[in-house]
Amino acid sequence: MKPNKDIALGHLACAATYAIFGINIILCRDIATDGGLAPIVLFSIRALVAGLLFWLASLFAPREKVPPRDLFKIFAAGIIGIFLPQLTFLHAIARTTPVDLSIVTTITPILTMLFAALFLKEPITWKKVLGVAVSFGGIVWLILQSAAVGGGAEATQPLGIVLCVANCTVFALYLGTCRPLIRRYSSITLMKWMFLVSFIVSLPFTLPHLPATDFLAVPAHVWWEVAFLVFFATFIAYFLIPIGQQRIRPTLVSMYGYLQPIIAIGVAIATGMDRLTLTKVAAAVLVVTGVAIVNQSRAATTP
């Protein structure tokens, strides 16, 4: 049984992380449409700088020896916890509006529960199956409506929603499978290795884009946004995520993902970047209803 203060710290870490991720959606959308940086180039910048910050921080933290067996697992965690989620997100945000992307991200808790059932042997109940079906229906409706409406660069594309679902899936896989590993090491030890492998994996995809990238032509405000993404949405957020994962269950960690769309939608509407429509509200109701059904399952609340 964990002390109440320890559990509270886990909740606080998750709340702060997903609040930052909510702002991250808005800034990444702005960079994707106005920044002149390809998604893979932006990812490599984030991975490189954040990785250097974690390695620098490790010089002042207690040293932890990682055996080769766990090092391989950490490398795999870097792929499904950083490289694939961030890359699919950056490609998705260029093809979706902030509101649509935020709606889709609410399926992450359901996916986390499914992976926890598969890998951590949490039972699947009929409520979980029903909840998944309802949420999936909301996502499919959003895809079909996006395809029917069409539109220009500012409209959501079906491929964008598919990439959003891929983003949620790989990050849910990370949350639902990596907790045993995460509980053995500090945030700094985990992240310095996870970002290192993510940066190395990204290099073959990034190098072909560098000759066509005019870094001097990138607007100054975009570089300020990139600085926020690197320090807060990457270094700070990914430092906090393992703190939450070590102290509360994967399902609860993913439930804090609801802060992300609330903040992102609020900022997007306030700044005129997006607007609510009846279709989006209906899709959101279906997705959230499905999640609520899943969370009514007794098995979902089992520690």
Which spans have pLDDT < 50 for at least 5 consecutive residues?
299-303
Rounded to the nearest angstrom, the radius of gyration is: 19 Å
Order of H and E elements: HHHHHHHHHHHHH
Based on CA inertia axes, which overall geometry fits?
globular
Please report the total strand number as a whole number.
0
Helix share bin: over 70%
Beta strand %: under 5%
Terminus-to-terminus distance: 10 Å
Average pLDDT confidence is: 82
Total of helices: 13
Structural class category = mainly alpha
Tell me about the largest β-sheet: none
The tally of structural domains comes to 1
Please give a structural write-up.
The chain is an all-alpha fold and 303 residues long. It is 76% helix and 0% strand. Residues 299-303 have low confidence and may be disordered.
Quick take:
This protein is an all-alpha fold and 303 residues long. It contains 13 helices and no strands. It has one domain.
List keywords for this structure.
about 300 residues, about 0% strand, disordered C terminus, globular
Topology record:
Layout: H1 4-34, H2 39-58, H3 68-93, H4 98-105, H5 108-119, H6 126-149, H7 158-177, H8 179-182, H9 187-206, H10 220-247, H11 250-255, H12 259-270, H13 278-295
Helix pairs in contact: 1-10, 1-12, 2-3, 2-9, 2-10, 3-7, 3-9, 4-7, 4-12, 4-13, 5-7, 6-7, 6-13, 9-10
